[in-house]
Amino acid sequence: EQATLKERVENAITNLPVEIREPFVLREFDGFSYQEISEQLNITLGAVRQRIYRAKLAMRESLWDLVHEDARPSKDDPTVRRSSLHDRSSRTATSRIIEQNDVDDDK
Q1: d(C-alpha 76, C-alpha 80), whole Å
Q2: Contact (CB, 8 A) for 20 and 56
Q3: How do the pLDDT tens digits run along the chain, 107 residues long?
Q4: Cβ atoms 80, 73 nearer than 8 A
Q5: CA–CA gap between residue 7 and residue 1 (Å, rounded)
Q6: DSSP code of residue 59
Q7: How far apart are CA 55 and CA 29, in angstroms?
Q8: Model pTM?
Q9: Is-contact 45 30, C-beta < 8 A?
């Protein structure tokens, strides 16, 4: 049985190492600024940026099939992941997937 979209996203978030999951959730779901995350977690601003980047990369790899019809990118091909990460329109793709699924659940 296939997991629902919401379950897939929740599992992908849960499977992130806590070190990158915390800043990712604070940014994408709680709306904290990078500076606020830095202060909350007592880490440098650079560490916040790096951890959120790594979390987005891991989420995009984990959920690749949900947003792309073509095959999953090769782990040896960083240009595929890098170019999509810098696409501003996909910055909150995971958030939009969860929000849309919540709306669908309410119907």
Answers
A1: 10
A2: no
A3: 366 888 999 999 999 999 999 999 999 999 999 999 999 999 999 999 999 999 999 999 999 887 776 555 555 655 444 444 444 444 455 555 555 544 454 44
A4: yes
A5: 12
A6: H
A7: 13
A8: 0.63
A9: no
